[in-house]
Amino acid sequence: MQTRKLGQTDVELTVIGLGTWAIGGPWQFGWGPQDDAESVRTIHAAVDAGINWIDTAPIYGCGHSEEVVGQALKQMRQKPLVATKCGLLWNDKREKINCLDHDSIIKECEDSLKRLCVEVIDLYQMHWPQPEEQIEEGWEAMASLVEQGKVRHIGTSNFTVAQLERIAKIHPVASLQPPYSMLRRNIEEKLLPYCGENNIGVVCYSPMQKGLLTGKFTKEHVQTLAPDDHRRGDADFTGNKFEQNLKIINALRPIADRNGKTIAQLAIAWVLQKEEVTAAIVGARKQKQIEETVQAGDWVLSETDIEEIENILSKE
Ligand SMILES: NC(=O)c1ccc[n+]([C@@H]2O[C@H](COP(=O)([O-])OP(=O)(O)OC[C@H]3O[C@@H](n4cnc5c(N)ncnc54)[C@H](OP(=O)(O)O)[C@@H]3O)[C@@H](O)[C@H]2O)c1
């Protein structure tokens, strides 16, 4: 699979990283029940297929996603790079709490290292820039973890340009992790150009819009989601927005078909054609899913396909 250098670092990432939100299992924004043995098989399959990095976070399943990643890593000789996050704690109802206190981040890092069973975290990302008044305090704590050798590089997630500018004065920003898909293109206007100009790596999340851009969703399919799958309440999966999304997906189908690819592969390859993008973080909860989507990592879309997709997306 193609690799790209992550911003100013010396790290080469495969253009597809494995996302492990869904495999965390239940919490406030969970995806319903998940079988851990299947999750471990999925992680092994991802690495066997050439993926060299995994993205996780403590909040995914309140520690559980990191534990499952740690369990999978223990069984591997050739270990992938690990990216995790900080800044989201949880209460006893498994609801998120934003916290960027210095001491809290230092403790979070220790907990993540234990759960992941690693000695150092390759990329440590501030999950959300909230509470906004604490982003400098949190970033300073993360920079001190680099000095202590607990993490190799520090990055951000869900930041605006103004917020990136604030923290860049304290310590170089290795990466930004923003949402980006054919259905969510907000970053194209300001964030992508800013990251390109400042050599900040961009690792995009939800490239298949949480599974919507696989083409498998219908109204009936949404009804089969577990009662605690947060997508039931996601605006993209309900009402007029959902209908509009299905129209776009149906219009994209012939482009995937004529290339002998799936809509999921088209969605990922489309994200990767942007030059500022380092990699797409592709979520999977089953081995078969990642075996399919990983193939997008070597597909370079033609100019004709890109133009046709642009026409479809700009009509909406
Ligand atoms: N920093 C942040 O704030 C943030 C936010 C969101 C995500 N992320 C990261 O980005 C990663 C990826 O985003 P995401 O998980 O939200 O969404 P995604 O990658 O767009 O979609 C992943 C979901 O699509 C379905 N799927 C995957 N491959 C499929 C296939 N071949 N056929 C059919 N269905 C398939 C699976 O769910 P079902 O089988 O249940 O449909 C899977 O969990 C996350 O895991 C996480 O690491 C970060």
Can you walk through the features of this model?
The chain is α/β, with parallel strands linked by helices. It has one domain: NADP-dependent oxidoreductase domain (TIM Barrel). Helices cover 38% and strands 16% of the residues. It is built from eleven helices and twelve strands. The chain has helices at 36-48, 64-74, 102-116, 135-147, 161-168, 191-197, 219-223, 239-258, 263-272, 287-293, 303-314; strands at residues 3-5, 12-14, 16-19, 53-55, 81-86, 88-90, 96-98, 121-126, 151-157, 175-177, 201-204, 279-283. A hairpin with a 6-residue loop joins strand 1 and strand 2 (12-14). The structure holds NADP nicotinamide-adenine-dinucleotide phosphate.
Short description:
The chain has 316 residues and is an alpha/beta fold. The chain contains eleven helices and twelve strands. Strand 10 (175-177), helix 6 (191-197) and strand 11 (201-204) form a beta-alpha-beta unit.
CATH architecture: Alpha-Beta Barrel
**What's the total count of β strands?**
12
> How many domains is the backbone divided into?
1
Write the CATH homologous superfamily. Answer: NADP-dependent oxidoreductase domain
**Shape type:** globular
Question: H/E order of the elements?
Answer: EEEHEHEEEHEHEHEHEHHHEHH
Q: What is CATH's topology name?
A: TIM Barrel
Radius of gyration: 19 Å
- Oligomeric description of these chains: single chain
CATH class: Alpha Beta
Q: What share of the residues does DSSP label as strand, in percent?
A: 15-25%
Distinct small molecules bound, one entry per kind: NADP nicotinamide-adenine-dinucleotide phosphate
